[in-house]
UniProtKB/TrEMBL annotation:
Coiled-coil region(s): none
Segments forming domain Smf/DprA SLOG: 79-290
Family, as annotated: Belongs to the DprA/Smf family.
GO biological process annotation, one example: DNA-mediated transformation
NCBIfam families, per database record: dprA
Domain of life: Bacteria
Taxonomic source organism: Candidatus Dojkabacteria bacterium
Protein name as it appears in the record: DNA-processing protein DprA
Length: 365
């Protein structure tokens, strides 16, 4: 996707009447947002109604590429948009994926097909602290990326342990990506970036935190990962909101059982009781659900690529960064699914790629 289209999508994300779901409907009729800006006012009102049509028309006067680049550069923030090659493939399958993501760090180096969220209470107990450490260590040792919200308590420990074990971790913030939130975790924020991780947010530089910012943040945590692990959480906690979103989106949900009557255990126990989460006692209870990933480890060994066509090598190169569904490949490589089918089948026969239970293709050793 070229920069002009990326910026057009970014601007559309700031139109009050355009949320993620409305944006998806617009894309069905206009795959190129730039083309919308070329339409006259009357046409846009006929297509989208008075309020939305006028908002889209007015964007052409606010559409200042240079100003945007200067603002983002000032805070060393990058951005990706729905449909872009850097946009997490796992997040695109969310029912309401963010139109735009702002980030710091190296997003392209993150393998979201091997990411899991660890969330929980800020008022963590010693029991929760110990369990969080053990679970995080076990997952990092198996090559999983740890995603959380950088809050105090469970989130912070998950990030810290991942870094101490040499793993990658991602913090999803309710504030803009350039603002460490909470401020007390500024050092952790810095360490995540220096550890080749990433800081992600749906909020632009000037966006303010509102009560709704946190549930929106939680859906990104749930949406960009294979599953969510809840260590300790109250019933109405953000961690349980994240778990419920993951459950509704068909992702794995895991919960550590806790003492009956303890506030920190009410949420996890209810998730288990309602059959929304798998009860786990050790990291092995999680890993058993991801055998297909552990058996299919991404590799950058290109010696096996000899004899592959240019198009086949292009597909293998893409898989070196992330796994993709057939539809994901079709979008990124701009090929029809029918053309891709034969190529992918041949690469599977050669033992270069494998299709997992989640319908995603990955490189194999």
């Amino acid at each position: 996707m070229d920069l002009e289209e990326k910026i057009a999508r970014l601007y559309v994300s700031h139109v009050p009447k355009i949320g993620p779901k409305t944006f998806q409907e617009i894309l069905k009729f206009y795959p190129s947002i730039v083309k919308i800006f070329e339409q006259d006012k009357r046409f846009l009102i006929e297509q989208f109604g008075q309020t939305l049509g006028k908002s889209l028309y007015s964007l052409r006067y606010e559409y200042d590429t240079k100003k945007l680049e200067i603002n983002l550069e000032k805070y060393a923030i990058n951005f990706t948009v729905f449909g872009d090659s850097d946009y997490p493939d796992s997040l695109e399958s969310l029912s309401d994926p963010p139109i735009c993501l702002y980030y710091k760090g190296n997003l392209s180096s993150i393998d979201f097909s091997r990411s899991l969220a660890i969330v929980g209470t800020r008022k963590i107990t010693e029991y929760g602290r110990s369990i969080t450490r053990k679970i995080t260590e076990g997952l990092v040792n198996k090559g999983f990326v740890i995603v959380s919200g950088m809050a105090y308590g469970v989130d912070s420990i998950a990030h810290q342990v991942a870094l101490s074990r040499g793993g990658k971790t991602i913090a999803v913030l309710a504030s803009s990506a350039h603002l460490p939130t909470p401020v007390g975790n500024t050092k952790l924020y810095t360490n995540i970036l220096s550890g080749d991780g990433a800081i992600i947010s749906e909020n632009y530089i000037s966006d303010k935190i509102t009560p709704g910012s946190f549930p929106r943040r939680n859906r990104i945590i749930a949406g960009c990962t294979l599953g969510t692990i809840v260590v300790e959480a109250g019933i109405k906690s953000g961690a349980c909101i994240t778990a419920n979103i993951a459950f509704s989106e068909g992702r794995h949900v895991f919960a550590i059982p806790g003492n009956v009557g303890k506030t920190q255990s009410e949420g996890t126990n209810k998730l288990i009781k309602d059959s929304k989460a798998k009860l786990i006692e050790s990291v092995d209870d999680i890993l058993v659900e991801f055998d297909y990933i552990l058996e299919s480890v991404p590799t950058s060994d290109k010696n096996k690529w000899e004899g592959c066509s240019k198009k086949e090598q292009e597909i293998l190169q893409v898989l070196g960064r992330e796994s993709y569904t057939m539809e994901g490949f079709s979008r990124v490589l701009e090929l029809s699914t029918s053309d891709l089918g034969a190529i992918l089948s041949m690469l599977e026969i050669r033992g270069l790629i494998a299709k997992g239970k989640d319908a995603r293709f990955r490189l194999i050793l």
